[in-house]
Structure formats: structure tokens, C-alpha cells
Specification:
Layout lengths: L2 E7 L3 E6 L4 H7 L18 E6 L3 E2 L7 H6 L1 E3 L3 E2 L4 E4 L30 E7 L11 H13 L5 E4 L1 H13 L3 E9 L2 E9 L6 E7 L3 E8 L4 E9 L9 H10 L3 H23 L7 E8 L1 H8 L21 E2 H4 L8 E4 L9 H10 L8 E6 L3 E6 L4 E6 L20 E8 L4 E6 L7 E2 L1 H13 L18 E4 L2 E7 L10 E4 H24 L9 E6 L7 H6 L11 E5 L1 H11 L1 H13 L1 E3 L7 H7 L12 H6 L5
Parallel strand pairs: 1-7, 9-11, 12-15, 15-17, 18-27, 20-29, 21-23, 27-28
Antiparallel strand pairs: 1-2, 3-5, 3-7, 4-6, 8-10, 10-11, 12-13, 13-14, 16-17, 18-19, 19-20, 21-22, 24-25, 25-26
Bound molecules: FE2/S2 (inorganic) cluster (FES).
FE2/S2 (inorganic) cluster binds next to loops.
């Protein structure tokens, strides 16, 4: 098989690959990131690249216009390497640096109580062995430890690795030691023996998201937040949602191993970055608390997730014992304990139990609806006495997937958008003040709301082609609205939203609203009974509450009842890292939350269909919006 060189511009990265390799695979081998939301299926059109030199093979796919093909554009996942190539990756096809959801998840500081962390470093002085004494070093260590920690633990143990280090280190250090102590499911376990006064120790709180992985570095001594890193999950190259990733594991012999490696690489890259920023060595990171949805938890551990999409739709694992970093593959102290939050069901995972923990809703008397809008839409309703949850297939449209100019919330994403019809102007802000590259979830909510207010779209999401503005046009037989003229910002193309994409977003918002409605209904409640709505997830930090109501994404409640809680999953992970009680609470929550399967509940599909209007076909459900838009019920 012949080999060829591929050079990727603008970075100049190059790689040698076998002929027949796709350009997308070559890019991955060269360490170059190309947006590939559909996982290389040729359906998303995100992996557009420009051929600068050479003759590729493969097919152009059916997501490019004739003009684009004439200009030399290719879909990286469909074109193959049959020659030496130079390929340019346009800005919009590059995966941007993530700056989203890095905050502390708006965790109330008073929730971080002094407790028993997942791991800690403690100083201990052992008695030296006495002449004639028969006790081993291990016994004297355990009795000293028991005296010190009798109030926190009943069971004590020492790992083999620590036993190996004990005799020499203790004698070299005149019996003054630092122990690395883990809470392994309630048993105090010594997993490291080091000279007294050794270096500081740190822990990680990790949100293993379908789209994004977020890693927080925590000082275990002070419980303080030190740094964060977020990255697109490398698994995104295998499909945008969990179902396509499960299918990948079924259709490829090494699929499960590949997906496991992809997410591990992402986490390890992030943790190396935060550790490097603070001059911290991997061994000094002595604990990690990870939360993820049920499929991501399976994939991270290399556990076959196939059963999740087969009747009766149960996961292989719902709760896990404390594991060790080495056996998972996390690049920290290999003996470090790794906690994984328990899941509720196949589609309500540990990210939700951790999120519920972080919001404090399970301890509050106030009826709370918690909605996590990520790649899927999960929601929990309840208070201190009961909790119900469900997951709806909202799809990743609000994360930009499936939309020509949709994008993740990265640098250059239009996050706030307003159309002023009198001046025919679109006002916008972008994340990081970057050059506009596309529209992220919060911007998409704004666009739907602002176009509805301005009469550009009707309540069915149809574009009014009769309006006297060039922004409304038909391109490739598709009605669309131009949000940004390319020439305004030096782009070759205009940023627009098509009527079909508006319908796609309406399907997503309707799935979320119908889920909330069915949950409320099954409990004999309505929106006005809800005392607060907490919104978390991919665009929770930026979502405009008024616009979210206007398009019918959230139930119609007074605006002051809606609060955005940012990344509640990573906030919950941090609580679990720092406190035994929090870890026990998450396990209890996973047992306590009653899961509803929306698909089998009567009325869900009808409500979903009824919600395919802005804000809804039934305006009596949205009285404040009807009033604002002067719509007659
Ligand atoms: S079209 Fe190539 S990755 Fe989606």
C-alpha cells in the first residue's frame, strides 16, 4: 500500500498516511482538530476543508454546493488520500478552544463543608519497634491511624504498594511519615507512604460530558478551586450523541477501546494542562471525582453500553465501587481513588445526580424543576420529600449540531443576538469577542425569539419571504434569514439560519417542554406550582430567560423564578471529591429518584407535537408570552 504526505494549513502540521485514509483520519493522526459532529458519516457538513494542492480520492459527499465543489472544498470525512496533499482548514471547520462552563458551577461556598475527602495526606509518627516486641510495622501504623481517625472510620486497611514503601521509608525518616489516605467506600485505606512534609496534594473534579469534558483542579488541603480546563470530548469525532457512539462500539471491533481512549485522552490532556499551569506533578494529584451520563460512564470504563439501547433498556452498571486511577487510565497518582457518581437509569446519569446534589434541591422544601440542557435534556422535579426525573431526546441542536452555522459555545460563537427591523440591523456579541464563526445555543434561542418578535417568522417557524429586507432570501431552494453579512467581518460566506433549521430547533425545544409538562402533569401539578426552575448545562450560563419563555422552551413562570446554575455537574463532582457525606448523598439520590420513561407515558408524543409552535399551540400554557406578543388564545 502506497503512502502519502498530507500537510494541514494554517498550522503546517503534516503526517504520512496510507492511501485510502480519509482526510479526517489523517487530520486526527496529525493532531489537527476538524469539526466532525456526525462522526464522519458525511451528514453534518461540518468537516469542510479546502484543497490547496494534490488530487484526493473518495467522493465529494452531498453536503457541498456546486460552487463550493468548484472552489475546491471537500468533506474531510468523505475525501481520501491518494496523493500528497496540502489541505486548508477554514476557521469555521476548526474546533475552537473551549472557554465555556469553566466556572465553579455557581456552587454556594457554604455547601462545601469540612468533611472526609476522597483522599488526603496526613502526617503520622509511628512508635519505633521495641526490643522483644512482636508487632509488625503495619500493625503499629494501623493502631496509630485508628487513634487518629476513629471518629471518621471503623475499617482500616493498607494497600500493597504502601506496605512495600513502609519499612524503608519509616526507618529512613525516623518513623515520621506522610500517609496518603483514601476513603474507599467507607474504609480508610492507606495507598501511599512518603517522607513527612512531602509536597502538597490535589484532587480533580471532572465532568465527563458527551460534548465537553471539564476538569477542575482542587487544593485538597484548603478545598479551594485552583484552575479549570475544558475541551471538546475527542469522542465527538465518533458521533455527536450517545446513541451514535453506542452504535459505533457495536459496528467496530475495536470501537469500545477507541472511544475509551478518546475520552481518556481528553481528560488526561486537560488535567496535564491545569497541573502544568501550577507546576504540579501527576503523583501529587491523589484523587478524582468523575461525573458523567450513563453512556459516558460506561465508555470511560470500557464497559459495553449496548444494553442501554436494547429492550428493556437497562445499563450494565448503575453504581460503582471506588476505583483506582491506574486501572482506569487516568494520568495521576496510579493508586489514587477515583469516584464515579451513581446513575439513575440508562438516560439519567451521574451528572444529574451530582447536579441535584449541587443545587441542594433534594434538601429544600421548595418545589424545584431542574433542567440540564446538554446534548440531551434531562430534568428532575421535586423537593426534600420526593424526586422524579426523566430524559427527553432533545438532540444536540441547541449545541449547534445539525445546523450549517450552529456551533458549540466556543470563541467566536454568537451568544447574544437581537434583530432591529426598523434599521434592518442585527446586534450581536460573540464569546471572547472573537470574530463571528457561527451561533451557539444561547444565540439560537435569541434568534428564534427576536425573529418571532419582529414578524420575520410566524408561530410555525415559517419565514415571511415577503418582507422588504435582503436578509430574507432563498438559497439552494431553502428560505433563510441572514444574520451576518460575510463582508462585514471578512468572511467568504454569510452566517444565516434556514427555515428547516428553525424547525429543527423547534423540535428540540418542544421535546424539552413536553418532558417538563408530562412530568408536572403526572404529578397533578402545573407550571405555577413550580417555585423555581434551575437551568444547567451547555448554554445555561448565557441563556436569556425571557427569550427561553418566549419560544416555549421553559414553562411559563415569573422570570424571577428562573435561575441559571451553570455547570452543576462539575460542582457536584467537587462536593463529592471533598466530602464523604456528599458521596453518600449521591448514592442515595440515585436510589431515591424515580425515573419516568417518557416514551411510554401517555400523552408525551401529543404534547411534543402540540409544542411545535412558538411558543406553543395552546397559548393558555403561555399567558405571559401571549400578552407580550399580543396573541389571542
Ligand atoms: S460531514 Fe464530515 S464529519 Fe460530518
Amino acid at each position: 500500500m502506497s503512502k502519502h504526505i498530507v500537510v494541514f494549513q494554517p498550522d503546517g502540521a503534516c503526517v504520512e498516511v496510507d492511501s485510502g485514509t480519509t482526510i479526517l483520519e489523517a487530520a486526527s493522526a496529525a493532531g489537527v482538530s476538524i469539526d466532525s459532529a456526525c462522526g464522519g458519516q458525511g451528514t453534518c457538513g461540518k468537516c469542510k476543508v479546502l484543497l490547496a494542492l494534490g488530487r484526493p480520492g473518495g467522493s465529494p459527499g452531498d453536503r457541498l454546493s456546486r460552487e463550493e465543489i468548484e472552489q475546491g472544498f471537500l468533506l474531510a470525512c468523505q475525501a481520501t488520500v491518494e496523493d500528497d496533499l496540502v489541505v486548508e482548514i477554514p476557521l469555521e471547520s476548526q474546533r475552537g478552544e473551549f472557554q465555556i462552563l469553566m466556572g465553579q458551577g455557581q456552587l454556594d461556598d457554604d455547601m462545601i463543608q469540612a468533611g472526609i475527602p476522597l483522599a488526603e495526606r496526613i502526617g503520622l509518627e509511628l512508635e519505633a519497634p521495641q526490643p522483644g516486641g512482636r508487632g509488625g510495622d503495619d500493625e503499629r501504623l494501623l493502631s496509630a491511624l485508628r487513634r487518629l481517625r476513629a471518629d471518621s472510620f471503623q475499617d482500616f486497611a493498607i494497600d500493597l504498594g504502601a506496605l512495600r514503601a513502609l519499612p524503608q521509608t519509616a526507618r529512613d525518616q525516623d518513623w515520621k511519615l506522610d500517609l496518603l489516605l483514601a476513603d474507599v467506600d467507607g474504609r480508610a485505606t492507606v495507598f501511599g507512604v512518603e517522607p513527612a512534609g512531602s509536597a502538597e496534594s490535589y484532587g480533580l473534579a471532572v465532568d465527563v460530558g458527551t460534548t465537553t469534558v471539564v476538569v477542575h483542579l482542587i487544593d485538597l488541603h484548603t478545598a479551594g478551586f485552583l484552575d479549570a480546563c475544558a475541551s471538546l470530548n475527542d469522542q465527538a469525532a465518533y458521533g455527536a450523541d450517545v446513541i451514535s457512539r453506542i452504535i459505533y462500539t457495536q459496528e467496530h471491533k475495536q470501537g469500545l477501546a477507541e472511544l475509551r481512549e478518546a475520552v481518556l485522552n481528553t481528560i488526561n490532556r486537560c488535567l496535564a494542562e491545569v497541573a502544568g499551569n501550577h507546576g504540579i506533578r501527576a503523583e501529587q494529584i491523589i484523587a478524582a471525582a468523575c461525573v458523567g451520563n450513563t453512556v459516558m460512564t460506561h465508555l470511560l470504563l470500557g464497559i459495553d453500553p449496548a444494553a442501554i439501547r436494547r429492550d428493556p433498556y437497562v445499563p450494565a452498571v448503575r453504581s460503582l465501587p471506588t476505583l483506582r486511577a491506574g486501572e482506569i487510565g487516568l494520568a495521576i497518582n496510579p493508586a489514587a481513588p477515583v469516584y464515579l457518581a451513581s446513575c439513575v437509569s440508562s438516560y439519567v446519569g451521574g451528572d444529574i445526580t451530582a447536579g441535584v446534589l449541587a443545587t441542594g434541591m433534594a434538601e429544600s422544601p421548595r418545589l424545584t424543576l431542574f433542567i440540564d440542557l446538554g446534548t440531551n435534556g434531562e430534568m428532575v422535579i421535586g423537593h426534600e420529600d420526593w424526586l422524579m426525573c426523566c430524559s427527553c431526546s432533545a438532540g444536540p441542536a441547541f449545541e449547534g449540531s445539525g445546523l450549517e452555522y450552529g456551533m458549540y459555545a466556543t470563541i467566536g460563537a454568537m451568544e447574544r443576538v437581537a434583530y432591529h427591523p426598523d434599521a434592518d440591523e442585527v446586534e450581536y456579541t460573540t464569546i471572547g469577542d472573537g470574530k463571528p464563526r457561527g451561533i451557539c445555543g444561547s444565540g439560537l434561542v435569541d434568534v428564534l425569539a427576536t425573529l418571532l418578535r419582529a414578524g420575520v417568522i410566524d408561530r410555525a417557524g415559517r419565514i415571511n419571504l415577503g418582507l422588504p429586507t435582503p436578509r430574507v432570501r432563498v438559497r439552494n431552494e431553502r428560505p433563510e434569514f441572514v444574520l451576518l453579512w460575510g463582508e462585514e467581518v471578512g468572511r467568504a460566506d454569510d452566517i444565516s439560519l434556514g427555515e428547516d433549521e428553525i424547525q429543527n430547533l423547534m423540535r428540540s425545544k418542544s421535546a424539552v417542554f413536553a418532558g417538563a409538562e408530562v412530568l408536572l402533569d403526572s404529578l397533578g401539578l402545573n407550571a405555577l406550582n413550580v417555585e423555581r426552575i434551575l437551568v444547567a448545562g451547555a448554554f445555561g450560563n448565557y441563556l436569556d430567560a425571557e427569550n427561553a419563555l418566549l419560544i416555549g422552551l421553559l414553562p411559563d413562570v415569573p422570570l424571577e423564578r428562573i435561575r441559571f446554575v451553570g455547570n452543576s455537574a462539575v460542582a457536584g463532582a467537587r462536593l463529592a471529591l471533598l466530602g464523604q457525606e456528599a458521596r453518600q448523598r449521591v448514592a442515595e439520590l440515585s436510589r431515591r429518584m424515580t425515573n419516568f420513561e417518557l416514551s411510554v407515558l401517555p400523552g408525551y408524543m401529543d404534547r411534543y407535537v402540540a409544542g411545535l409552535f412558538l411558543p406553543h399551540t395552546d397559548l393558555s400554557l403561555f399567558p405571559s408570552v401571549a400578552k407580550k406578543l399580543e396573541l389571542k388564545p
